[in-house]
Write a structure and sequence with these properties.
The protein has 16 helices and no strands. The protein has 398 residues and is mostly helical. α4 packs antiparallel against α15 and α5 runs antiparallel to α6. The chain starts with a helix and ends with a helix.
Length: 398
Amino acid sequence: MRIWRDLKSFVHIQGARTLLLTLFIYGIGTGILAPMNAIYLQDSVGLGKEEITSVFAISLFLNMIITISVGFISDKMKYKKRLPIIASLLCMTGLFLYMRADSYTSALVGMILAVSPSGLIFGQLFAMARNHFTSKAPTIVEIAQIWLRATYSIGFFSGLLLGANLYLLATFQGVLWGNLAGYAALCLLLLFYQEVTTDSSAQQVRSNATEPFSLLMLLAILLLSCSDAIRGLHLPLVVHELFGDPRLMSYMWSIQAVFELLFMTAAGYWAAKYGYKPVIWLGSMFALVTYIVYSWSDSLTMFFVVQPIYSVFVSVLYGVGMGYVQRMFVHRAGFGASLYIFISQTATLIGYHLPLFIDGVTPNIFWIPAGLITLSMIIMIYVMVSSKSTHTHHAPSA
């Protein structure tokens, strides 16, 4: 089978396992804090919903500026790993301040230093990985990227479980120290990783793996990411409000790890066979179902049941979606990866604010992402129909 042949090639590539471990560790570090960040600001620092949104939005906006700025210049750099190394050190410094926050101002300053430099990390890790596999195994570049993204997700969900247990053992301070340890481990692994650059023959192979630029598809992906951002920030608050246990969100998200590697792998091969746009559209259907359940149900069981359903959407958005954007700019790995992250960050910034139009913390918030998903699907249908019509129009007649 092709998947086993590709997997065998993948694990024997020099440096592939180091990249896997790096993404796994980074995922653990970010996952430890992610579901409890908003709750920490609410319970330990004493901030309200508007203040929490402000802290997240300001730090994210600065992160966006750093991400897209670095994307423009990183392709001119022969070696990129110094960027995430520097960023890791800055994030660790910010976390020292963040864990001592006792007011809106101190929380904001700590969050800015802990989050903004991370714009130098995620996109550049995948730019480095794309160059690595393009040079050493150009025939499996796309699926290798997806496996790396899935590994990050598995690490992230492992971090969720670890974070829940750290919370039991050492409250929020233990969670924050765990997040800091993740950045420290990332920095150490990058110091030992030997970065690879692409050669001219690999560049020629890369030229065949492209997607035409589509502003409408970028908009559709923005809307999908925006819906996921609303869920990411507000689902922990809604679950905490409905069921009263901050650990539940960690357990709920960790269920996705069981399915995500399988779904990302399947989605990657489906995209190669049927095209990226149809697979992204299909994945969006699973998100729409999940948001409707979130909005209508107050059953904890149903919240857990829909997690595997939602993991299909996440697998497509973060695996196939990232590959799709990178393939639009296949000769500029740094910019392509940074653009995808920038789109996700822009979506997150929008997603932080949209639920403010709904009073309180309520499941009704999820009607907003349901609407965004629906609009995105309509845009994708228009793009696919227009593309098919153009192809038919230009096809030679018999």
